[in-house]
Amino acid sequence: MADKAPSLRIIVNSLKEVVNAFVPSGKVMQIVDQKLPGLLGNLPSPYEEELKGIAAVTEIPLGEIIAYNIFYEFFTLCTSIITEDKEGHLLHGRNMDFGIFLGWNINNNTWVVTEQLKPLTVNLDFQRNNRTVFKASSFAGYVGTLTGFKPGLFSLTLNERFSMNGGYMGILEWILGKKDAMWIGFITRSVLENSTSYEEAKSILTKTKTLAPAYFILGGNQSGEGCVITRDRKVSLDVYELNPKQSRWYVVQTNYDRWRKPFFLDDRRTAAKICLNQTTQEKISFATIYDVLSTKPVLNKLTVFTALIDVTKGQLETYLRDCPDPCIGW
């Protein structure tokens, strides 16, 4: 964090500017700085200790570090893909799209926060007793996990799900003292740290109450082990699984329920499916999944990075992305 502190200060200041643009009095940021840590109360260990450590090292107020972490509960637009080849080998890919409505730079046609997240992008190796427990692609200063895998066992990515009963309701309930749900970034990290199998991970992600609705995209280590879990805050609405016997050799998830049409200006799902069908199951690989995730509008102005995961081989590759014009804004 000492190394990334200057970049983190830049993005935190950008978020403050967005908030102050809506509430010019500065009172919202005053509440964030002075009262947010107290309002949220004790966060589960080790996240609270880590947040305090990040604040201490970067010399950024703890409330602003917490707010930076909360933003990921609201603004994460992503595309996640799990594929299975003819031999039953699974690959997991994702585009991390982040920063919509958080400031547009008219000079170079980019989202301000999207560009500021790129130098904060890190590959992390979580270890216990000098042995790797899991690996992740993340942003420095964020203590949850949105993209990760447990070598040899399973992979997991998290996409935001829009709902009227959204994450802001979960956070409000938390502030008011109802703390029986988990923060979505914390549950994914906990599963990656503690679960020992694909089935165990699927069970926890399906049953645990969460602060925000979400899509959990979970891949395993053998044929048929891949699914999209569509979550409301309190219940699972749908588990859509790979089924190679019925020619369902991939699953694709963006930010819309699979049984509903996506927003007409943001149909990344159809584009990804067309590309995968043209690629064919015989030719699926890191390179071809990267190509799918490089096709507009799957790749867009909000894309911070592309991550590729091979659980069986223990491989994680992360690439910072740019979408050259002409490129859709989200």
TrEMBL record:
GO terms for biological process: fatty acid metabolic process; sphingolipid metabolic process. InterPro entries: Acid_ceramidase-like, Acid_ceramidase_N, CBAH/NAAA_C. The keyword Disulfide bond applies. Keywords: Disulfide bond, Glycoprotein, Hydrolase, Lipid metabolism, Lysosome, Secreted, Signal, Sphingolipid metabolism. Pathway: Lipid metabolism; sphingolipid metabolism; Sphingolipid metabolism. CDD domains: Ntn_AC_NAAA (cd01903). It is found in: Lysosome; Secreted. The keyword Lipid metabolism applies. One of its GO terms (cellular component) is extracellular region. GO terms for molecular function: fatty acid amide hydrolase activity; N-acylsphingosine amidohydrolase activity. It catalyses: an N-acylsphing-4-enine + H2O = sphing-4-enine + a fatty acid. Signal peptide: none annotated. Its EC number is 3.5.1.23. It holds the Pfam family NAAA-beta. Belongs to the acid ceramidase family. Heterodimer. This is Acid ceramidase. The lineage of its organism: Eukaryota, Metazoa, Chordata, Craniata, Vertebrata.
